[in-house]
Amino acid sequence: APNNEIERKNFIRTLDKYLLGKRSVILGGDFNCVENLALDKQGGNPTHGNTGAKELQSLKHTFQLKDCFRSKHPNGEEYTWHGMDVHCRLDRFYVDSELYDWVDSVFHSPCVLSDHDMVNVKFKHIDFAKQAYGPGYWKCNVSVLKDKELKCDFELVVALLLVPYVHLRAALTQ
Fold first, then answer.
1. d(Cα 55, Cα 75) in Å, to the nearest integer?
2. CA gap 40, 88 in Å, rounded
3. Could you read off the pLDDT of 115-158 as tens digits, one per residue?
4. Other residues' Cβ atoms within 10 Å of the Cβ of residue 69
5. How buried is 141 (Cβ within 10 angstroms: 0-12 exposed, 13-18 middle, 19+ buried)?
6. Element holding 94 (H helix, E strand)
7. Which residues, 6 or more positions from 83, have their beta carbon under 8 angstroms from its beta carbon?
8. Closest Cα partner for 92 from 39, 42, 20?
């Protein structure tokens, strides 16, 4: 989610259109806010950092989503972003209540290429052959590719992910 508080709230309000459908929902990322200032933040201004939490609560309620880490660790105080004097759990995975039954464990681990820790969600074995999804094969809903904002965001993410490798390749070929 955006760093800017107004943009963050607006962004979270737009997520519902991507979650509609009959399939299970897995929503994850850097939400740039905490839901619980007491458990998900240490240091800094004790009243700042939860802008967007109300919008997330609404989204969670609408789609019956559960925060994987908080559900498995109700009183756990772990953080995925570490600043000078501030630590926050900004990165989370949410799953719908039906899929949550399949979550085995959730933990955080350092990530070399980021200033955020990685959120690891381990699922129990699911026998997809026994799932009642009908015949056929998976295909991408190409209508989402017409969303200009999504396309720009995706191109930006890909470009940002490639930057370290471009510099590495240039350094190795010199």
1. 22
2. 6
3. 899 999 999 986 666 666 666 666 777 777 788 888 888 788 87
4. 25
5. exposed
6. strand 91-96
7. 43, 44
8. 39
Cα–Cα distance for residue pair 146/151, rounded to 1 Å: 8
Residue type, 109: S
In the beta sheet, which residues pair with residue 28? 93
SS3 state of residue 27 = strand
| Average pLDDT score over residue span 17-35 | 91
Bridge-partner residues for 106, per DSSP? 121
Length of the chain: 174
- Specify the 3-state DSSP secondary structure of 47: coil
How far, in Å, CA of 57 to CA of 33, rounded? 12
CA 75, CA 6: separation in Å to the nearest integer?
29
In whole angstroms, what is the distance from residue 143 CA to residue 127 CA?
Answer: 29
Structure tokens at 100: 């949550």
Distance CA 174, CA 172 (A): 6
Is it the case that residue 73 has pLDDT exceeding 90?
A: yes
Residue owning tokens 């933040």: 41
